[in-house]
Amino acid sequence: MYIPTPAEIRAKRIMLGLRQADVASRAGVSQSMVARIESGTVDPRVSTLKKIIQVLKVAEHPAITASQVMHAPVHAVTPDDSITTAVEIMGREDVSQLPVILDGVPIGCISESAIVNTVEQVGLTRAHARKVKDFMESSFPTVPPDVGIETVVHLLQQHHAVLVLDGGKVRGVITKHDLIALIA
C-alpha cells in the first residue's frame, strides 16, 4: 500500500476543496488529528490513515446519483388504457413492465405476468376489452434525482424498476439493466 506524505494528504484535501473538519467528520476522527497528520507531528495508526485516504478517494470520485443513471422518457400507461395498449407499448419498447401514471404521478404498474394472468382468467378474446386498472399491481418505488445509486441498488433487489420523481412528477426510470450497463 502506498502511504502518502503529510504534504500529499494536505495538497489532495485542498485540491478537492475540503476543510480539515470535513475530512475529519467523514473519517470519524478529530479535526486536530487531521491537522497533526498533515503537519507531520504525529505518526497515525494505519487504520486512521486508511480512513482519511478513503475519504479523499470518495471525494475525488463523487457518488453516482439516480439522475445520472435514469433514462427518459418514461414509457407508461394510464389506468384507463386497455391491456392491448399496454401490450403494444411493451412490444414496441422491448420492456416487460410499465408504470401506470395518472397526471404525472405513479399509481401502479402493469407487467407481462399480470397480463398473462388476465388472459388465463378471462380468456384471450375477453382480455382485449379489459383496462389496465383492472389488473394493476403496486407501483414501483420512487426516489429523488439526487439519491445515491446505492439506494437504487437496494430497491432493485426487491422491485423490477425504480422511478425518479422531481417536483412530484416522474422524470425517469432505472431498471436492473441500467445498473448492469454501469459495469460495462
UniProtKB/TrEMBL annotation:
InterPro entries named in the record: CBS_dom, CBS_dom_sf, Cro/C1-type_HTH, Diverse_CBS-Domain, Lambda_DNA-bd_dom_sf, Tscrpt-reg_CBS-contain_prd
One record GO biological process: methionine biosynthetic process
Domain CBS per the UniProt entry, residue ranges: 70-126, 136-184
UniProt protein name: CBS domain-containing protein
HTH cro/C1-type domain mapped to chain residues: 9-64
Species the sequence originates in: Methanofollis formosanus
A GO molecular-function descriptor: DNA binding
Keyword annotations: Amino-acid biosynthesis, CBS domain, Methionine biosynthesis
Record-linked CDD domains: HTH_XRE (cd00093)
